[in-house]
Specification:
21 helices; 49% helix; binds D-mannonic acid; five-stranded parallel beta sheet; three-stranded mixed beta sheet; oxidoreductase; alpha/beta; globular
């Protein structure tokens, strides 16, 4: 079998990028070459290139593993995107020009960031990749990659924030204008967060640089959405059946895709709206909606589902009791939101339920369960405080919090890894607690995790505790059934 390397080898029935790939220069440097970026930003960019052309191809940067980098370079940046529903369809995406492994070739990364043609630096690095100090919202200089970058001359940045500052510093020195830095992660006001971290970092190096960035660079916020499970053997087999070529970079995703972008790009941007992106003035309402209704519900079902033995999201939707809780969680979350322009929250919820139940998507609950300490504050705790302010119900958020605690407890003894940057702290807190109230207090006491106001809220504590007691005493299945009957 031949590897996927060139478009001319593909059967004519396969949808391929209909533009002259070699003629389109690079305009975007993207940090974080995961499956999500390949199912989302690279696809919108492919559509924009088809519609309007332009020098907007992507140089992708990997900060850690080099596997995906080597594979994509061997394939000339080409890969297959499978869209799974009742039937699977597919297309080959051509918007990635090349990929660089930052630890192996930092000079090439800096050159790409400093190149005048680079007008956007986009990032998908997940919540933990930012280095946010949970206590202040500013830069956490104890995160190893951030600490290393702050102490270095930035000739080989390890963190995304360090890399952005290094790129901007070089551009300023060369008299080249700044690029737009575009966060595509699940954080509320992700652009504002990124700006704050970049300025914090820059200010510690050079006050003039920080002033220049503040005055000239832009950091639009975006809401990104597409459920993208990890690649499996079946992804590669189905991609091979479609294209007749071996594709080690193939990925699969759902039909739904959404991108709401704050239209603030001083150095230009691709015609992403041609791929369906929605350009708005203020993205915050969309971000909150997605975070609390989609991601928050995901986290709840991931902890409850994983502990109850449900492997995939669709399995949690096939459990009538859990499905009820999933629907209820979305309704509870919707009640914490202000109106979202152009969106009917009830229809949004119905559509989410259909997406979660998609029988063709193998989205592991254990994947979503990862990094709880990074995800719960924005998905669950903020929503709980918002519900309290409105005098609305927060039972489902308390259940989600308890389910996360039961997940942490369940990992003791090595049944599974928690997979969280604070895993060691979580395990040591949970190991010393025998009973539900000890576990609850130990986890609530972790610094910078649960907001002080929530920790001190006796009704919240009792509501979580009553759920946690059932989870630990009678099992997650019984807790789900009890909650559904309430
Ligand atoms: C999920 C998200 O893993 C998770 O935490 O909630 O990756 C989710 O699938 C995406 O945000 C969907 O757009």
């Amino acid at each position: 079998m031949t590897p996927l390397q060139s478009l001319s080898d593909l059967p004519t029935a396969v949808a391929t990028p209909r533009y002259d790939r070699d003629a389109a220069g690079v305009g975007i440097v993207h940090v974080g070459l995961g499956a999500f970026m390949r199912a989302h930003l690279a696809v919108y960019t492919d559509d924009a290139l088809v519609a309007e052309g332009g020098d907007w191809r992507i140089t992708a940067i990997g900060l850690r593993s080099r596997d995906a980098i080597d594979v994509l370079n061997k394939q000339n940046g080409l890969y297959t995107l499978l869209v799974r529903d009742a039937e699977t369809s597919g297309r080959v995406i051509g918007s990635i020009a090349d990929a660089i492994h930052a630890p192996s070739d930092p000079a090439a990364v800096l050159a790409a960031l400093a190149a005048p043609g680079t007008r956007i630096v986009s990032i998908t690095i997940t919540e933990k990749g930012y280095g946010i100090d949970p206590a202040t919202g500013g830069l956490d200089d104890t995160v190893p990659a951030i600490a290393a970058d702050l102490a270095s001359d930035l000739s080989a940045p390890q963190s995304a924030v360090g890399l952005i500052v290094a790129g901007l510093e070089r551009r300023r020195a060369h008299g080249v204008g700044p690029f737009t830095a575009l966060s595509c992660d699940n954080l509320p006001e992700n652009g504002r967060i990124l700006k704050r971290l970049v300025l914090d970092f820059a200010r510690r190096r050079d006050g003039d640089l920080a002033d220049w960035i503040e005055a000239n660079a832009c950091f639009p916020s975006t809401m990104v959405d597409r459920i993208t499970p990890p690649q499996t053997e079946k992804t590669r087999t189905d991609a091979r059946a479609l294209t007749g070529a071996d594709d080690l970079a193939a990925i699969e995703t759902e039909p739904f895709s959404q991108w709401v972008i704050e239209d603030d790009f001083r150095a230009g941007r691709p015609a992403w709206e041609k791929g369906g992106a929605v350009m708005v003035k203020d993205v915050h309402a969309y971000e909150r909606m997605k975070l609390v209704m989609l991601n928050g519900t995901h986290s709840m079902l991931a902890y409850a589902g994983h502990v109850a033995g449900h492997r995939f999201v669709r399995d949690t939707m096939a459990d009538p009791d859990l499905k009820r809780l999933i629907d209820r969680h979305m309704q509870t979350a919707a009640a914490t939101l202000d109106a979202v322009p152009g969106i009917d929250l009830d229809q949004y919820r119905q559509a989410l339920l259909v997406r979660f139940a998609n029988p063709a998507i193998d989205h592991p609950t254990y994947q979503i369960a990862m990094d709880g300490t990074q995800k719960l504050p924005t998905r669950i705790f903020d929503a709980t405080l918002a519900a309290m302010t409105r005098g609305a119900d927060f039972g489902s958020f308390a259940f989600a919090t308890a389910a996360w605690m039961a997940y942490v407890k369940g990992a003791i003894g090595g049944a599974y890894a928690i997979r969280d940057p604070r895993e060691a702290e979580l395990l040591s807190a949970a190991s010393s607690a025998q009973l539900a109230d000890g576990l609850l207090d130990a986890l609530l006491a972790l610094p910078g995790l649960v907001p002080t106001e929530l920790r001190a809220h006796e009704t919240f504590r009792q509501t979580v505790l009553s759920r946690l007691r059932v989870m630990l005493g009678n099992g997650m299945g019984a807790a789900i059934a009890k909650e559904a009957a309430a």
